[in-house]
Amino acid sequence: MDPVIHLSRPKSKAAPRRKGVAGHRLVLDEAELTAISGLTVTTLARSLLDLSAHMELTDLVVAGDWIISEQQRNFGRSRSALIPLPELRNYVESKVGIPGLPRLRAAVDLMRVGVDSPPETRIRLLLGRAGLPAFTPNIALLDETGIPALWADLGCRQYRTCIEYDGGHHLTSAQQSRDTQRDLITRDLGWQQVRLNRFDVAQGPAWVVGRVRQALARGGYVP
Questions:
Q1: Starting at the edge strand that comes first in sequence, how are the strands of the sheet with 161-165 ordered?
Q2: How far is Cα 95 from Cα 51, in angstroms, rounded to an integer?
């Protein structure tokens, strides 16, 4: 399939028509336009809104989690949101009558701040659909003084259960050594931990949900 470039013009003008181009006519506010390398384009929020008519709900939440992700830590990596969640929510709520808007509003309700990777979002949504207790992204595991000892990718504080998603970099010997030390700290803090990777995800939803449900049960969860 040949790639298609999407070009838009104001509603008062004809939509672009040429080979390899999908033409659109949009009603845009000035605040929905920006410039990149001298080229006028829609802002990130408006682009997400336009794409929402063509994306599945889960994919929209994945994209949104990346856009709103922010982390402020005393150690480790910090990150600022491309669009803070309240700002994105206000933008979406200000719109009416745009294709895909209901889906984007539903996606915003499911977005959470602090996500590091798409698999974390997909796992969190999967567990929610399975009816398990809610998991919070980038949750702090506190020591006996109330100070964060480390952060988990996803965590349920009520049942002291956390999830770590291991990407490809976890296969290195140095990272595996750090992971072993992290596992010991997590256990000493009294948390149940589930480590998942792409091979676990490939086993299917039932496998992932089952592993997490078992860990929650060890933490006192009763369905």
A1: 136-142, 148-156, 161-165, 192-196
A2: 15
User: What is the three-state SS of 164-203?
Assistant: EECCHHHHCHHHHHHHHHHHHHHHHCCCEEEEECHHHHHC
Contacts of residue 22, Cβ cutoff 8 Å, sequence gap at least 6:
4, 5, 6, 7
pLDDT along the chain (223 residues), means of 10: 76 83 86 92 94 95 96 65 96 94 98 94 97 96 91 96 80 66 90 94 96 97 91
Q: Where are the domains of the chain?
A: 5-110, 118-218
Residues 6+ apart with CB under 8 A from 38: none
pLDDT of 12:
77
Which of 161, 142, 164 is closest to 153 using CA atoms?
A: 164
Distance CA 19, CA 25 (A): 17
Task: Provide the CATH topology of domain 118-218.
Answer: Endonuclease; Chain A (3.40.960)
* Contact of 49 with 92, CB cutoff 8 Å: yes
